[in-house]
Amino acid sequence: MSFETIRVTRDERGIATVTLARPEKHNAMNAQMIGELTEAAKALAEDSSVRAVILTGEGRSFCAGGDLGWMRAQAEQDRAGKMQEAGSLAGMLGLWNALPKPVIGQVQGAAYGGGIGLIAVCDIVIAEENTRFALTETRLGLIPATIGPFVVRRMGEAFARQVFFTARPFDAAFLMRAGLVARICAAEGMAEAVEEEVSAILNCAPGAVSAAKVLCRELAGTDPVQAADMTASALADCWETEETQEGISAFFAKETPTWRRNA
Questions:
Q1: Average pLDDT over residues 128-157
Q2: Range 144-166 burial, b when 16+ CB lie within 10 A, else e
Q3: Which terminus of the chain has a lower count of CB atoms within 10 Å, N or C?
């Protein structure tokens, strides 16, 4: 598999590593990366020789959320175009969430917005101890709609209410309490921690591992993909408000929206 915004490698044990490869942009997602992550998920799902997948980011950050150029392009689209972009992101996350192999997230530096969505579709997440997280959409007048079903399903409503609308940053310890992070490590211990999880998976029967993952998803209830239309519509509603238009314009103009000046 050959891509431009991600890198896919595989070792002799059948462990695939998918690396977000836009380090100069802190691995922020754009339409191309979403498309390539979609294609990678489809290929990995169909490859019977792949036993597990490691998802990580190149450079200082795991994923800084949405690319600014991608966001600007969305702002200029009509409602149908905005919903289509949201649908593409939801579809990609859905494929990763349903990947019939364990997905180990190796997270460092920062994970914002859509980066937390990627974490939510991993099965086991190992975070570097100094990683910072945030859902900052409400600062722009938007909401974390598309990633919401995946994130709320993993962390639960109580934890989601603490971070969905404050835009306040939080740490790996918070996500460990919420159940999204399995282990927190110093930077020098990350590779060893990931390898311990890989070794545990390789000691189990691959068919049983896949079936057990399906069982977990079925027992948890409604699949987040089924909420895609609702979340895309809710996000499109936000885009059309005067508040959001002011927030987005202020963001790109590096100005302060009125609600922050009055705070």
A1: 95
A2: bbbbbbbbbbbbeeebbeebbee
A3: C
- State the pTM of this model: 0.92
Strand order in the sheet with 110-112: 110-112, 132-134, 170-171
Contacts of 100 (CB under 8 A, 6+ apart): 45, 210, 213, 214
- What is the rounded CA–CA span in Å between residue 208 and residue 216? 12
**pLDDT tens-digit series, residues 182-204:** 999 999 999 999 999 999 999 99
DSSP per residue, 211-263: HHHHHHHHHH-S-GGGGHHHHHHHHHHHHTSHHHHHHHHHHHHT---HHHHT-
The angle, 0 to 180 degrees and rounded to 10, between the axes of the packed helices 79-97 and 31-46 is: 30
CB 9 within 8 A of CB 46: no
| pLDDT one-digit tens code per residue, 93-120 | 999 999 999 999 999 999 999 999 999 9
Say what the pLDDT of residue 169 is: 96
Domain ranges of the chain: 1-187+205-263
Q: Is 189 exposed, middle or buried (0-12, 13-18, 19+ CB in 10 A)?
A: middle
User: Which tokens sit at 129?
Assistant: 């101890």
**Encoded tokens for 260:** 């922050």
- pLDDT, residue 183, reads 98
CATH class of 1-187+205-263: alpha beta
Beta bridge partners of 56: 19, 106
What would the mean pLDDT of 42-66 be, rounded to a whole number? 97
Please state, in angstroms and as integers, the Cα–Cα distance from residue 209 to each residue in 108, 124, 251, following that order: 27, 13, 45
What CA–CA distance (Å, rounded) separates 26 from 109? 9
Q: Are 120 and 147 in contact (CB under 8 A)?
A: yes
